[in-house]
Design a protein that fits this description.
It is globular and about 45 Å long. The relative contact order is 0.15. The protein is 46% helix and 2% strand. The chain has a two-stranded antiparallel ribbon. Helix 1 packs across helix 4 and helix 2 runs antiparallel to helix 4. Strand 1 and strand 2 form a beta hairpin. It is an all-alpha fold and 170 residues long.
């Protein structure tokens, strides 16, 4: 479809943009109350980003030399974005999905077995990828008078750094 951007193309572009925008070092900060770790305080965004970055580095180290091969040939059980280069898929997961939801890789993945489908969040993410692709390639394309040549939705459109999508206006 001429004049439209594919969901995969958009995610790849977003990952490259986020990689440049998030070049500041993440500070691993553990919230404390009176010197003891605070059980009821959520981890800071810097702590979450540091964890995601650590997992991404670990995965990239295991695929060294295969970063440009299709993700489905490098990783087991890739059902979404199988043609994306493996190294880029790691960036999309880290900077696209993880950052958009404000979570670490462990939210959707069993980090001792990345291919595992035991977490329902992984299935939800796959469904959301399909939903965004349908909206971007079929539905938005048919709405007349939208401003901009390539309107899109992505994870951040609704989630805005939170697991639960924004449902109410402030």
């Amino acid at each position: 479809m001429e004049g439209q951007i594919s969901s995969v193309g958009f995610l790849v572009a977003m990952a490259a943009t986020w990689a440049c925008a998030s070049s500041r070092p993440a500070l691993p900060v553990t919230p404390t109350v009176s010197g003891a770790p605070a059980a009821s305080v959520a981890p800071s965004p810097d702590t979450i980003a540091a964890a995601r970055d650590r997992y991404a580095r670990e995965v990239l180290a295991t695929i060294a030399g295969h970063e440009n091969e299709p993700a489905s040939q490098v990783f087991k059980n890739v059902k979404s974005l199988p043609a994306v280069p493996a190294g880029r898929l790691v960036a999309i997961m880290n900077l696209g999905y993880g950052r958009s939801l404000g979570v670490t890789c462990a939210h959707c993945h069993t980090v001792s077995d990345w291919a595992s489908d035991t977490k329902p969040e992984k299935q939800i993410a796959r469904g959301m990828i399909q939903m965004a692709a349908t909206i971007n390639t079929q539905l938005l394309a048919n709405i007349k008078n939208l401003k901009g040549p390539q309107p899109i939705v992505n994870c951040t459109t609704c989630h805005r750094g939170q697991v639960k999508p924004a449902l109410n206006l402030p």
